[in-house]
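User: tokens in, sequence out, please.
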């Protein structure tokens, strides 16, 4: 039987391109945003603030590390658009920009709740322990918890973001774009919006089609001119009969399994592509 090496190579390339097309999607959740927040109580808040453009996308987050004034200056610079965010930004340059603009008096030492209150919320909150220092996960949760206050809404408005509705996801529609990409139109209650290309989700999969039928407990909308997009969706845990406390664990386990499955799939695609190349050149060089 004669092996069609060219066909094998073409099929491997098609499969690889399909996987890559899905892999390059920029939607992330707590399982893919940072490798060290999986067991942090603040993981959803951390992902939310990344989506809002306040926390930088560094290689790791270190949720249990002390929240320093360098961290505070970096987050402040992003919140005030003094520098470029995105993946692996220049955090030193961001901190320096906040210092030079007079948004923070010093980048030495640890930050406090009152520091966060003054810079992000213009001093309109009333912290229980204003002089207390905190860790980075606590800082993220403190900011995220107060985003629904009037001072928090003002902070979001400076980022071009506003709070969205909670409720049942009535529909998720996948639209193919002329440029070859995908747009996910998601309907929550009476609100239908596309998902922002660099949006974030929490307590649910990055495959947005699987959000159909879920219940969203927290959402945020990004506005760009006359356009509006979902920028963050956080799902209620999937209810399980007789033990509601197990539902969060089920969601987390499912996301870890999905992440492992993707890695295995990418490995198989790479192996198939390599095999196709070997067989192709072997066929060309064989007498």
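Assistant: Sequence out:
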């Amino acid at each position: 039987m004669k092996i069609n090496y060219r066909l094998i190579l073409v099929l491997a390339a098609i499969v690889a391109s399909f996987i890559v097309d899905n892999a390059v999607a920029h939607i992330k959740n707590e399982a893919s945003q940072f490798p060290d927040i999986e067991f942090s109580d603040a993981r959803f808040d951390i992902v939310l603030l990344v989506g809002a453009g306040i926390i930088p996308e560094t290689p790791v987050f270190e949720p249990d590390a002390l929240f320093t004034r360098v961290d505070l200056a970096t987050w402040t610079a992003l919140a005030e658009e003094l520098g470029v965010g995105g993946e692996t930004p220049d955090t030193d340059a961001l901190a320096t920009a906040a210092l030079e603009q007079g948004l923070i008096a010093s980048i030495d030492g640890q930050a406090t709740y009152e520091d966060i209150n003054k810079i992000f919320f213009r001093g309109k909150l009333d912290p229980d322990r204003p002089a207390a220092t905190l860790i980075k996960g606590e800082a993220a949760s403190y900011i995220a918890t107060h985003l629904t206050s009037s001072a928090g809404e003002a902070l979001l408005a400076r980022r071009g973001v506003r709070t969205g509705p909670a409720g049942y996801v009535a529909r998720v529609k996948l639209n193919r774009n002329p440029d070859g990409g995908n747009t996910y139109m998601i309907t929550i209650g009476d609100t239908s919006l596309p998902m922002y290309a660099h949006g974030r989700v929490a307590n649910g999969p990055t495959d947005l089609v699987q959000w159909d039928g879920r219940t969203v407990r927290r959402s945020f909308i990004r506005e760009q001119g006359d356009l509006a997009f979902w920028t963050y969706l956080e799902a209620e845990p999937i209810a399980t009969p007789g033990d509601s406390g197990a539902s969060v664990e089920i969601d987390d386990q499912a996301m870890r399994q999905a992440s492992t499955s993707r890695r295995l799939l990418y490995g198989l695609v790479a192996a198939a592509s390599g095999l196709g190349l070997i067989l192709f050149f072997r066929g060309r060089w064989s007498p």
